[in-house]
Amino acid sequence: MKGKVMTETKLFDNTLERIDETGTRKAYEYLKAHLNKDEDWSSQVYNFLYCLAATSDLPDEALTWLEEAIIEKGQWYRPEVFEDEDLDHIRNEERFQLCEKTSKKRYEDALKEASTEFTLKERLEDNLLVVLHGNQQNNDISRAFWRDISIEDYQVEYLQSKELDSYNLYRWNDDGDGPKQLASAMKKTDDIGFENKVLVGFSAGCNTILRAIVEEKIVPDKLLLFSPWIPVSEASMTQIIESLKESVVEVMIVCGELDEDCLPLCKLFEEKANELDYECTIRYIQGLGHEYPEDLSTYTGAYL
């Protein structure tokens, strides 16, 4: 869990905290001061920069960041990104409109080439662990967290969504076809043959896994769900847990106590699991936000 990915993940968390505590201007200054100038910044970094500058009454800086991302670096975003109200102060500028037009063309071109990427090529170990990224992530980001985790008799592979977020970043939409993408990947694992198959999800990747169990009837042996995003009603949560129970799938959930969006969903999952007498392991981590725990191998080793 080293390098740029962890730095950006934690930096975004800290920046968001400062927006709530001191406003966008202070958050913007904090972000600029803590970015590594020697690294290539992701499209998400630039999104933070130009949105924060725009809402801090710094329109020229916002436009400059936007131009650097799109015109200079060749990046692009989903069209919805340009609808963000944070950009209202600059959207009538010619510079903004050129960036939007350029980005839209690149997005449309990328859509034509978009495909699911599953890293599995052959069987190297008896057991398999497949990691699904979260929104605004990719396989490289997942790999940065898992590459140093050694699990005896397991090979670790990665599944990247074909649903585009922005340049080199992807997402699992709540109502997208992620379950079908995952089911197709699991069919490949069946064809190759493994003794045990474990699915790991982070954030929206967890929702895709649970949807696939209900909608596509996939049956992994175990699930490891980190900071799980499970945007469903109580009735749907009941359906998910009944499917897990019926298929005898073991589940471990790890969620930070500071994860404001996902913690209530984990609590609902726990409540429904207890009601339905479904045994699962849930760990709430003090001081952790919406991210992987630092001692990731501890949880993985104990569970597998």
From TrEMBL:
**Which Pfam families does the annotation name?**
ABhydrolase-like_N (PF22316)
Q: Which InterPro entries match?
A: AB_hydrolase_fold (IPR029058), BCE_2095-like_N (IPR054527), Terpenoid_cyclase/PrenylTrfase (IPR008930)
- Residue intervals of the BCE-2095-like N-terminal domain: 7-110
Question: Which superkingdom, per the lineage?
Answer: Bacteria
Please identify the protein, giving its name as recorded: BCE-2095-like N-terminal domain-containing protein
Q: Which organism is it from?
A: Petrocella atlantisensis
